[in-house]
Amino acid sequence: MLLDELADLAADRVRDGRLRLMGEGGLLVELTRHLMQAAVEAEMDLHLAEEAGRTGGRGSRSGGNARNGYRPRKVITEVGTVTVQVPRDRLGTFNSSLLPKYARRTGGLEEMVLSLTAKGLTSGEIVAHLAETYGMETSKETVSTITDKALDSMADWRTRPLDPVYPVLFVDCVNVKIRDGAVANRPIYVVLAVTCDGHREILGLWAGDGGEGAKYWQNVLAELQNRGVRDVLMLVCDGLKGLPEAVNTVFPQTVVQLCIVHLIRTTLRYISRQDWDAAARDLKPVYTAANEDEALARLAEFSEKWEAKYPAAVRAWERSWSEVVPFLGFPSPIRKIVSTTNAIESLNARYRRSVNACGHFPNETAALKRLYLTTLALDPTGRGRKRWTSRWMEAMNAFDIAFDGRLSAGRA
């Protein structure tokens, strides 16, 4: 009851402005300081008692180890900066587990910085946020040091074992600005998989230089293979150069499907805006046809109408036809899934917001670290995962039938 009364009194004083909650001198800061002080005092008592037991009870000031004053330590916590008087011992054997030697911040602060980084805040914005909200004096260098701790976990994440079979892989890229002498756009490729249970899983992030070809993609796919992937039913991409050839080498049974939405966008680049609606309307019968023969007939009609005016638009479909038609041989549930990379577009939108907030990065490692932290922050409640899984259940059954049980073999 006494604790409740004290809490009510403190709340009243916070409301009427007589007591601050955060920042220097704030209630939470003072409470944190008292708790941390009590904790390190208890650690010292335990340490001296253990040493006394090991040395036959010689724990007095006249014989064995004993307290020997204090040293002040400023510590940045998740509620603000506190100063703790860390006790010292005569023999110098005490080291607090709560405040290890040279530690200047708590784990809670590091988690907060990582979370704010993952949500797209820059180092400068995080410093300003911590100063305004918690009265903390930090620096961009401190924030960078904290986020660098994610590099080890990122390395583990990028080499973790994967499932043996995936029904679909979506491959796309996010362009980031990296300073390498001069600031230039560099692609970071993301591979998003749908698991046999209908869940989304980001398999990894890879930095490129914009000139990737079959050899580059063969290395990426071989890396996935080395992490345990034995079969991929379909791979959906946006016309990445050399990728289909690499897929045929590493996973020869995999069907490569071009994203129809991206192909439509490419087609419209060759067409005047005033004709966009009419051209898009004439293209729809091509990719919604019942089979390849009907699709070819509809493409011929599109060509007859538009080739004289926009020949490049027609050539875009003709060049990509072998990667356009695979999904026409599948039932509707599979078509809805693989005719577009919408599954990865929402992810890329989050990535773009995060990298655009930074402007540019000093190197590709910094860019990868940023995207990795953003990945960790995706759908923390799991609600999106449940919605996604329910949408994919029908497609999972269709995949298993269309690919002769290869999906079931992956679940076994």
Automatic annotation (TrEMBL):
UniProt entry keywords in alphabetical sequence: DNA recombination, DNA-binding, Transposable element, Transposition
Region feature (Disordered): 51-70
Stored InterPro entries: Transposase_mutator (IPR001207)
Keyword field contains DNA-binding: yes
Family (UniProt): Belongs to the transposase mutator family.
Function noted in UniProt: Required for the transposition of the insertion element.
Protein name, per record: Mutator family transposase
Naturally occurring in which organism (per UniProt): Streptomyces silvisoli
Lineage: Bacteria, Bacillati, Actinomycetota, Actinomycetes, Kitasatosporales
